[in-house]
Design goal:
globular, alpha+beta, Butyryl-CoA Dehydrogenase, subunit A, domain 3, Butyryl-CoA Dehydrogenase, subunit A, domain 2, two-stranded antiparallel ribbon, Butyryl-Coa Dehydrogenase, subunit A, domain 1, 386 residues, 3 domains, eight-stranded mixed sheet, single chain, 15% strand
């Protein structure tokens, strides 16, 4: 099916991803999903993605990246998610984690981390979430104590994409004890994973998105130079929220790609599945399901592109990113659910179709980078403050 493009540059991105997807993703994506536990990051596959230019696509050109627009990035993520949602996540995570470094870091920090991250030589992690600081991201308990020219960091991070295998982390924490502060200021510190006291651990039995690993990070008396402070002290929460705005556009694009694949698989199956002497595509019940799927898909696509275009224009886009993420994630959920219903038992059993895998992969996009409930709070609050 032909996709709508908001800008002519998008088609070249689609063609690039499709060529790669047919050659490199389709032969391996089922195998990557079905590996036995404990799953590990497929490093050779990751390096192949980096070599193709996907990992550094949104990073600055002068630092070894692709220097793409937000709309081009969203298109790339959309098309990768069409082929395999976890592959889109493998490429999105390092760009999410690198964003605060190349946006708020000093020249030394940028030169140290970004070129190697873009090349796939260093794997970054965005270490914000904790067991009691998920949706309430400001409720950080990780603490960096000042010790002369160093920080000594103690705490634990939870649900961190690639936190189990990262080479460095953009770590969000409080500096000093700050017991008297009702909402202590959060800072961001760059921490190398080979620093003594830094330990990653893989989370097991993940429902979907299995090629991209998720982990915990333990920090026990981790000593790093104070020069590793990213940007201004106390500005970390602002940096994190600014990073998540862009990330939500990427998640919305994942939703579009997943929904697109679900619609196409449903149409193909409906045209070929014979029941009552004719293809089930002849049944009004099936036609209406596909009509609802296709309509949600196109609405999600337009909302995602709008948010990306606002980001490219340098305009405020927090509201539009939240709307796109909310609607697209839930539209993808609707589409994979209807595709499952159309496929019936052939969708539920992974031997027969990819719908079972899509169903598992989709579910998390309504959770990470801000749950659907958090997006509703952002949207409602934005309108009520207007």
């Amino acid at each position: 099916m032909k996709r709508f493009n908001a800008h002519e540059s998008q088609q070249a991105v689609r063609d690039w991803v499709h060529e790669f997807g047919k050659k490199e993703i389709e032969p391996v994506f089922i195998e990557l999903d079905r590996r036995p536990e404990p799953q590990v990051l497929p490093k050779d596959y990751y390096k192949k993605l980096a070599k193709a230019g996907f990992i550094g696509y949104s990073m600055p050109k002068d630092l070894g990246g692709g220097g793409c627009t937000a709309l081009e990035y969203a298109t790339m993520i959309e098309e990768l998610a069409y082929f395999d949602p976890p592959t889109s996540l493998l490429t999105a995570v390092p760009q999410l984690a690198a964003f605060p470094v190349f946006t708020f870091g000093n020249d030394e920090q940028k030169k140290k981390y970004i070129p190697k991250a873009a090349a796939g030589e260093l794997l970054p992690a965005f270490a914000l979430t904790e067991e009691n600081a998920g949706s309430d991201a400001a409720n950080q308990s990780t603490i960096a104590e000042v010790d002369g020219d160093n920080f000594v960091i103690n705490g634990k991070k939870h649900f961190i994409m690639h936190g189990d295998v990262c080479d460095f982390a953009v770590l969000f924490c409080k500096i000093g004890k700050q017991e008297e502060a009702k909402r202590p200021k959060i800072s961001a510190i760059l921490v190398d994973a080979n620093t003594p006291g830094f330990k990653g651990e893989t989370l097991k039995y993940k429902m979907g998105m299995k090629a991209a690993t998720t982990g915990r990070i333990y920090l026990e008396n981790v000593k790093v130079p104070r020069s590793n402070l990213l940007g201004d002290e106390g500005a970390g929460f602002k940096y994190a929220m600014g990073t998540l705005d862009g990330a939500r556009v990427g998640v919305a694009a994942q939703g579009v790609g997943i929904a697109q694949r679900a619609v196409e698989e449903a149409v193909k199956f409906a045209n070929n599945r014979i029941a009552f002497g004719a293809p089930i595509a002849k049944l009004q019940a099936i036609q209406w399901m596909i009509a609802d799927m296709a309509t949600r898909l196109e609405a999600a696509r337009v909302m995602t592109y709008k948010a990306a275009q606002l980001q490219d224009a340098g305009a405020r886009f927090s509201l539009e990113a939240a709307q796109a993420k909310l609607f697209s994630a839930e539209a993808a959920g609707f589409c994979v659910d209807r595709a499952m219903q159309i496929h019936s038992g052939y969708g539920y059993i992974g031997e027969f179709s990819i719908i079972e895998k899509l169903y598992r992969d989709q579910r998390v996009i309504e959770i990470y980078e801000g749950t659907s409930e958090i997006q509703r709070l952002i949207i409602g609050g934005s309108y009520l403050r207007a």
